[in-house]
Amino acid sequence: MTRKIAFLPGDGVGPEVSAAARRVLDAVAETHSLSLKYNEYLFGGAAIDTAGDPLPSETKTGCLEADAVFLGAVGGPKWDGGALRPEKGLLDLRKALGVYANLRPTSIAAGMEHLSPLKIERAKDVDFLIVRELTGGMYFGDRTEGNDTARDECLYTREEVSRVARIAFEAARKRKGKVASVDKANVLATSRLWRNAVNDLHQAEFQDVEFSHVLVDAMAMKLIQAPADFDVILTENLFGDILSDEASVLSGSIGLAPSASLGDGARGLFEPIHGSAPDIAGHGKANPVGAILSAAMMLRYSLDAGEAADAIENAVAGALEQGRGTSDIGGEDTTASFTEAIMALIE
Ligand SMILES: NC(=O)C1=CN([C@@H]2O[C@H](COP(=O)(O)OP(=O)(O)OC[C@H]3O[C@@H](n4cnc5c(N)ncnc54)[C@H](O)[C@@H]3O)[C@@H](O)[C@H]2O)C=CC1
Ligand SMILES: CC(C)CC(=O)C(=O)O
Ligand SMILES: [Mg+2]
After folding, report:
1. Which of 48, 191, 249, 297 lies in disulfide reach of 183, CB 3.0 to 4.6 Å?
2. pLDDT at 81
3. Contact 286, 325 (CB under 8 A)
4. 30 CA distance to ligand 2 centroid (A)?
5. ipTM above 0.95?
6. Residue 284, annotated ligand binder?
7. Is 278 annotated as a binding residue?
8. Does domain 1-103+254-347 have CATH number 3.90.1150.10?
9. Which residues of 41-65 are buried (b: 16+ CB within 10 A; e: fewer)?
């Protein structure tokens, strides 16, 4: 069976880390006898420049017809302030694919403990999964934008909250059995709906899962103060975006952090959590691990190739343990030499 991957390198370091992920995917395809077919499409700023649209219809159709979608990153100063924004293409793609649950795991790999700003004594106990709602909330509400007044609407329906909460509770059952739901229910109406909907689902179907509510400001503190206390952290789109960048610091670098965005079918969208990193783009400095681990998540969640995913994750862990890495994690490798070190450990 040939698996079809829609491949969107995007902007900035996007093409650099995507190329790294593709080399590793090709290496694991060889060792695990997988047939992978990549169809590459224009997306983001690169698509604005060429086609006048961050999500051209050919790209959208190609993604909808694929078994999985892999993305590098989009955006950059070139398009800031323009009428068309690369980031709008990303939001539209997530909506079109119906990928409402964004899974962002955080742990501290062996060999990376010294990078933690926290002197975490028990680094191996830090292992949590942020489940971020991805197709609703503030990023998708109506906006008005003027010189003196601007407005961003935040809207959630009970159904949108319940379906992502279900993913979080189900994930907790396969992990350490705990969910912390994060909101701002002391202020926001959407957060009070969020809290009621998650409570109701917990009560009706998931009473075996240990469950708590944490206000988002307190969570920003607790994530740093006691990260080993958490298992699954469920939250809305905006809060999850912010908390996951914060969480990446625990692991050593945002360049290490992968994500999987899933909906009701098998097809998902897989991308590192970082952006296009214009400050380092084109210098061979980008850490490819977030993209490479996103490719592993793609194999596991959308392409029915869990053993190949394990092989990639083991190879990444091995390379980090050997002290290999780009400068963001204190290493001397380029993106390419780090990728080769990982490929050499694929079994
Ligand atoms: N999913 C996406 O495509 C996302 C796109 N963006 C866009 O990316 C552009 C830049 O945004 P920033 O706020 O600078 O966030 P960013 O995530 O691109 O960069 C933040 C910092 O992390 C570093 N960094 C990021 N990825 C790295 C990697 N692989 N290896 C080593 N260091 C890395 C950068 O050098 C920078 O210092 C903006 O246009 C933004 O809208 C931002 C976040 C996500
Ligand atoms: C550019 C945003 C739409 C995306 C983002 O920051 C993210 O999903 O982490
Ligand atoms: Mg983000």
Report:
1. 191
2. 87
3. no
4. 33
5. yes
6. yes
7. yes
8. no
9. bbbbbbbbeeeebbbbeebbebbee
**231 in active site:** no
Q: Could you say which DSSP state residue 276 is in?
A: -
What pLDDT, on a 0 to 100 scale, did the predictor assign at position 327?
A: 98
How much is the pLDDT for 123?
85
Tokens for 288? 């490819």
CATH architecture of 117-251: 3-Layer(aba) Sandwich (3.40)
Whether this model's pTM surpasses 0.90: yes
Domains 1-103+254-347 and 117-251 share a fold: yes
Residues 262-296 as b or e (16 or more Cβ within 10 Å = b): bbeeebbbbbbbbbbbbebbeeebbbbbbbbbbbb
Q: What residues does ligand 1 touch, defined as CB less than 6 Å away?
A: 13, 17, 73-76, 87, 90, 253-255, 271, 274-280, 286-287, 290, 328
Residues in the chain, pLDDT under 50: none
CB-based contacts of 169, cutoff 8 Å, min separation 6: 179, 201, 202, 205, 206, 209, 232
Q: What is the pLDDT of residues 126-176, one digit of tens each?
A: 999 999 999 999 999 999 999 999 999 999 999 999 999 999 999 999 999
- Which residues make Cβ contacts (< 8 Å) with residue 184, sequence separation at least 6? 191, 215, 216, 217, 239
Catalytic residue, candidates 241, 301, 328, 333: 241
Ligand 2 pocket mutation, candidates 11, 88, 90, 261, criterion most atoms within 8 A of CB: 90
Give CA 184 to chain center in angstroms. 23
22 token code pair: 């593709």
Which ligand is closest to the CA of 46, given by its number? 1
For residue 127, say whether it is annotated as part of any ligand binding site.
no
Cα–Cα dist 77/217, whole Å: 30
Instruction: Please tell me the distance between residue 56's alpha carbon and the centre of ligand 2 in angstroms.
Output: 19
Map tokens 């491949």 to a residue: 7
For the chain, which residues make up each domain, given as ranges? 1-103+254-347, 117-251
Q: Which is the catalytic residue, given 184, 231, 301, 333?
A: 184
337: Cβ contacts below 8 Å, ≥ 6 apart? none
